[in-house]
Specification:
Number of helices: 9
Strand order of the largest sheet: 13-12-11-10-6-9-8-7-14
CATH topology of the largest domain: Dihydrodipicolinate Reductase, domain 2
Largest sheet: 9 strands, mixed
Helix content: 25-40%
Strand content: 15-25%
Structural class: alpha/beta
CATH architecture of the largest domain: 2-Layer Sandwich
Distance between the termini: 28 Å
Order of helices and strands: EHEHHEHEHEHEHEEEEEEEHHE
C-alpha cells in the first residue's frame, strides 16, 4: 500500500494513450476522470473506438489532438512509441491477451482493465512475456481503491479482528433481468458480454472483483471450491448467476455470490469479514462507513471522520473533508495514484511497490474461476 501523498508530483507526469474506452463506453469516462483527478496522468493519444465517428468524437471530448488519434493499435504503436509513457487497455476482455502482448513486445508499459484475460493460460503467457521483456503490466481493480476497504486491510493486519473465521462477499446486480414499462429490455449489454467461453463472462466481469478483494485484504489462497450457476435472466444462452463456497488457507471459509438477475440491486457489492475477536461489514453503496463489532457485543459505525482510523482519513484520501462523500471515481483515482508510483519506480529502475493485485493475483483469480466453472459442471468439489 502506498501512502506518499506528499511526494512531489508533477502535473501530468505520465503521458497516456488509451486503447478503447470511448466516450460512450461503460468505463471510458470513469478511467479518464480518475486518471486526471490527482494530476498524475494526461491522456494525449488514443484509439478509442473501432467506429471512426465515435473515435473522433471521443478524442474531442477527452481533449486529444486529432493528429494523435489512430484507427488501430498497430498504427498507434508505430506513431506513438517513445512519445507516451503507458497505454491503458479498455477493450473487451476477449481482446486483451493479443493487445497486451503486442504492447509488451513493443516495450510499452501497460495498464489493463480487469479481467486481464479470459483464461489462465493466456495470463501465464503474458506473465512470461512481461518477465522476458522486463515490461510493466498493471491490472485495475477499482474497488481496492476505496479508503474504507484499505482500512479493513489495516484492521486485519493489526490483529483487531483476531484469527479470521469466514468471509461473505456478494455482488448482485439486475442488468440481465430488468425490463422497462413496455416490457422491453431495460439494458442492452455490449455484444461481448453476451458470449460465454469456458469461464462465463459474468465471472470475468464480477467474480474477479470478489477474488481480488479476498486476496488484497487477507493474502489468503483458495484451496478448493464447490459452486453452482444458473441462467435465469433475459439472455438465456449465458450464465448470469454464480454461488460458491471456497476453503482458503488458514481454515478460512469464503462464500461468494454474484450475478445480474437480482431485481432491485443496482450494484449490491457487500463484504463481511468475521474473526474471533470482531467483525467488519462494508457496503459499496454506502462506501464511507464501516459497521464494526467486537466479541463483547459492541457494534459501532465508523466513517472518515472517526479519529481512530488507521488509514482511511490519511491526507491522500481527504480530497474534501468528511461529510462530503467520496465515491466510485475517487476510488479509481486512488488506485491510479498507486499506479503512478509504480510507473515512477519502473522508470527509475527501482523495485515496483505493490498496489493490491499484480499479475500473480490475476493469474490466481483465473485459476480460481476456472475451478468454479469445473465445479458447476461436475456438481462436485474441485481442488485448486
Amino acid at each position: 500500500m502506498i501512502d506518499e501523498f506528499n511526494f512531489p508530483l508533477k502535473m501530468n507526469s505520465f503521458r497516456i494513450a488509451c486503447l478503447g474506452g470511448g466516450y460512450d463506453s461503460a468505463i471510458g469516462r470513469v478511467h479518464h476522470s480518475a486518471m486526471g483527478l490527482d494530476g498524475c496522468f494526461a491522456v494525449v493519444a488514443g484509439c478509442f473506438s473501432t467506429d471512426p465517428d465515435q473515435n473522433r468524437v471521443s478524442a474531442e471530448m477527452f481533449g486529444v489532438s486529432p493528429d494523435r488519434v489512430y484507427h488501430d493499435l498497430e498504427d498507434m504503436i508505430k506513431h506513438e512509441l517513445g512519445r507516451i509513457d503507458a497505454v491503458v487497455v479498455l477493450t473487451p476482455t476477449d481482446q486483451h491477451s493479443d493487445q497486451v502482448a503486442k504492447l509488451l513486445k513493443a516495450g510499452v508499459p501497460v495498464i489493463c482493465e480487469k479481467a486481464l484475460a479470459g483464461n489462465s493460460a493466456d495470463i501465464q503467457s503474458l506473465k512470461s512475456l512481461c518477465s522476458s521483456t522486463n515490461g510493466f503490466l498493471s491490472v485495475t481493480y477499482n474497488y481496492l481503491g476505496f479508503p474504507m476497504v484499505r482500512e479493513i486491510k489495516m484492521m486485519i493486519e493489526s490483529g483487531r479482528l483476531g484469527r479470521l473465521c469466514h468471509i461473505n462477499l456478494q455482488m448482485p446486480q439486475e442488468g440481465f433481468i430488468r425490463l422497462n414499462q413496455a416490457t422491453n429490455l431495460k439494458f442492452t449489454p455490449q455484444p461481448w458480454r453476451l458470449v460465454d467461453h469456458f469461464v462465463p463472462t459474468i465471472s470475468l466481469d464480477l467474480g474477479v472483483h470478489l477474488h481480488s478483494l479476498v486476496s488484497y485484504l487477507t493474502g489468503l489462497k483458495p484451496k478448493d471450491v464447490v459452486a453452482v450457476s444458473a441462467k435465469q435472466g433475459n439472455f438465456s444462452l449465458i450464465t448470469d448467476y454464480v454461488s460458491a463456497i471456497a476453503n482458503y488457507t488458514d481454515d478460512v471459509i469464503c462464500n461468494f455470490c454474484y450475478g445480474k438477475t437480482s431485481l432491485g440491486q443496482r450494484n449490491g457489492l457487500k463484504l463481511q469479514i468475521f474473526g474471533q475477536l470482531g467483525s467488519v461489514e462494508w457496503v459499496q453503496e454506502d462506501s464511507e462507513r464501516l459497521r464494526v463489532s467486537d466479541q463483547y457485543g459492541n457494534v459501532s459505525i465508523v466513517d472518515r471522520g472517526t479519529q481512530s482510523l488507521m488509514i482511511a482519513n490519511a491526507k491522500r484520501y481527504e480530497r474534501f473533508k468528511p461529510g462530503h462523500p467520496s465515491g466510485f471515481i475517487e476510488a479509481f483515482a486512488n488506485y491510479y495514484f498507486d499506479t503512478y508510483f509504480q510507473l515512477l519506480a519502473y522508470r527509475e529502475g527501482r523495485k515496483i511497490p505493490k498496489n493490491g493485485c499484480d499479475i500473480d493475483v490475476a493469474l490466481e483469480g483465473l485459476l480460481f474461476l476456472e475451478a468454479v466453472e469445473r465445479s458447476c459442471r461436475s456438481k462436485s468439489w474441485v481442488t485448486m
